[in-house]
Amino acid sequence: MRTPLIAGNWKMHKTPSEALTWLGDFLPKLSDQNPNADVLLGVPATHIAAMAARAGGGPLGIAAQDLSAFDEGAHTGEISGAMLRDAGATHVIIGHSERRADHHEDDATVHAKVAAARRHQLVPIVCVGESEEERDAGQAEAVVLRQLEAALGDMAFSDAGQLVIAYEPVWAIGTGRTATASDAGAMASVIRDALKRTLPAVADGVRILYGGSMKPGNAAELLAQEDIDGGLIGGASLQTDDLLAIATAA
Ligand code: PEP
Q1: How far apart are CA 122 and CA 87, in angstroms?
Q2: Which of 47, 96, 98, 111 is catalytic?
Q3: CA dihedral 178, 180, 185, 191 (to 10 degrees)
Q4: 221 an active-site residue?
Q5: Which runs of E-coded beta strand occur in the chain?
Q6: DSSP symbol at 120
Q7: What is the percent of the chain with per-residue pLDDT over 70, rounded to a whole number?
Q8: Mean pLDDT value across the chain
Q9: What is the atom index within ligand 1 of the atom nearest the CA of 97?
Q10: Helix, strand, or coil here: 62?
Q11: Active site includes 96?
Q12: Mean pLDDT value across residues 95-109
């Protein structure tokens, strides 16, 4: 009942012209293979307008990787939700562990950014996930639930399509280590149960992604878990064939 969502996260890779060349290869293959999944690409802000124009409202959506918590004003270097939306983004990744670590984004910042995304009709892809130390200490669930609660707080959603959650154990991101399918599936179910308590009207329809070294060889098993509705894919989204293989596994 939930259409899978396969979302790439290019991080800080490729120039705008390399991105258009990549699209020239990817878009015809995507149309050809027509996977049973929505496909989205999170790209640097400098790429959004040109990539969204090239993708042209077709089967590939374009996402931003971050946004400002502010709407406008004296915030040098920041990019607002309105700017991203106008450039052609439909979704925005928020609270990625690299931003939490490199830019000291805390739970309050993540909450403010989710609110900003909603003010500008961008669908937030809210990232949550525990570190290796937290998992070893038996705190994985508590950390994920705290991050989720802090990010969404008292927000209301009238439609399940207005929210995506990505469970990304920090120790699995970019490391080649993947959570076992059953551990990842169990955490996705914990997230679904929490959503049922706080957002009962939409919880069943919200898509929960797994992220952390997902690749063609492990995607099918992860995506077969009942509460995993797709993937947030870093490294493997840089290669057209790998991203397509994951999308067709969904
Ligand atoms: C990510 O960037 O969110 C991610 C999961 O990266 P990778 O697939 O490379 O682990």
Answers
A1: 12
A2: 96
A3: -60
A4: no
A5: 5-9, 38-42, 60-64, 91-94, 123-128, 164-167, 207-211, 230-233
A6: T
A7: 100
A8: 97
A9: 3
A10: strand
A11: yes
A12: 97
Alpha carbon nearest to ligand 1 atom 2, residue: 234
Q: Is the CB of 7 under 6 A from ligand 1?
A: no
Residue 232 CB–ligand 1 contact under 6 Å: yes
pLDDT of amino acid 242: 98
Please name which of 237, 247, 240, 207 lies closest in space to residue 44, comparing C-alpha atoms: 237
Distance between Cα 174 and ligand 1 center (Å) = 5
Domains of the chain are: 5-12+31-249 (3.20.20.70)
pLDDT tens by residue, 124-153: 999 999 999 999 999 999 999 999 999 999
Give ∠ CA 80-111-44 in degrees, rounded to 5: 40
How high is the pLDDT of residue 56? 92
Q: What's the CA gap between 192 and 190, in Å, rounded?
A: 5
State whether the beta carbon of 235 lies less than 6 angstroms from ligand 1.
Answer: yes
Is the shortest distance between the CB of 218 and ligand 1 below 6 Å? Answer: no
Tokens for 240, please give them.
Answer: 């057209």
Percent of the chain with pLDDT over 90: 97
pLDDT over 90 (residue 165): yes
